[in-house]
Design a protein that fits this description.
By secondary structure, this protein is an alpha+beta fold. About 45% of the residues lie in helices and about 10% in strands.
């Protein structure tokens, strides 16, 4: 069986790449990865060959003469759930448990799908004002829209940790929701404390859970070894930099 190929952008900046990469890692999908430099001329041939949107991530799955190309992070994780894993990404449980028709499981899967879709299509305040920049600690002046998004995210975290999970991932087991909110955790690490944004204890707890995840740690370590800089994603006042650019 040929491994799927995941084409991703720079690990320091590419939040959508992280979502797809982290989900595949968390659900034990064996895949190869190919990195491109976001917005660099060298990336254009690869993007033109595989993505009609010209964006990453891109998943290419080949079985014999059949080739399936999937672009957009939400489509990639849905494809992975259908064909690449025996574990349900919306609950973190074996797919065999779905046959039990358990009402709580149905409710949790629906909630997971809803907050993933909400993250995918909305929360533009935090996404525009706090671009993912793993190597940096930076100070910003968050707008009302950004603070409103953070409040909404904190509500989601609190609701999940109070009603759906004891004290770990959002639904107990790692799910697609954790993959989709991983870049938010890294954004908060970069900007929140430096910008005087006080987070709820439940948010701090969940952020630490995610930062302890070995795959998240591996992604961060790789990001710190990158020296490519995208000026438009260097938001706010950069207070410090870690990794190879700090040397």
């Amino acid at each position: 069986m040929q491994k799927p190929l995941l084409i991703i952008g720079n690990k320091n900046y590419s939040s959508w790449s992280l979502r797809a990469w982290l989900l595949l890692k968390a659900f034990d999908v064996d895949f190869d990865e190919q990195s491109i430099q976001l917005f660099a001329p060298s990336a254009i041939p690869t993007l033109k060959a595989h993505s009609p949107t010209g964006k990453v991530p891109i998943l290419i799955s080949e079985q014999g003469e059949e080739k399936v190309t999937v672009w957009d992070c939400l489509a990639i994780i849905t494809y992975a759930n259908d064909y690449l894993t025996t574990t349900d990404i919306w609950s973190g449980n074996p797919k065999s448990t779905l046959e039990n028709n358990d009402s709580n499981l149905r409710k949790n899967r629906a909630y997971c799908q809803s907050i993933v879709a909400e993250m995918h299509s909305g929360l533009m305040g935090i996404r525009s004002e706090m671009p993912m920049n793993i190597r940096a600690t930076a100070r910003i002046k968050p707008s009302t829209a950004c603070l409103t998004d953070i409040a909404r995210i904190e509500h989601i975290f609190t609701e999940c940790l109070t009603n759906r999970s004891a004290d770990s991932y959002l639904f107990g087991h790692f799910t697609a929701a954790d993959a989709f909110f991983a870049p938010v955790v890294l954004r908060l690490q970069t900007y929140a404390k430096a910008s005087g944004i006080i987070l709820k204890p439940s948010t701090e707890q969940y952020c630490q859970t995610m930062l302890n995840n070995p795959h998240v740690q591996a992604w961060q370590q790789a990001a710190l070894q990158e020296d490519y800089v995208i000026e438009s994603d260097e938001a706010g006042e950069i207070l410090s930099v870690e990794g190879i650019l700090a040397e």
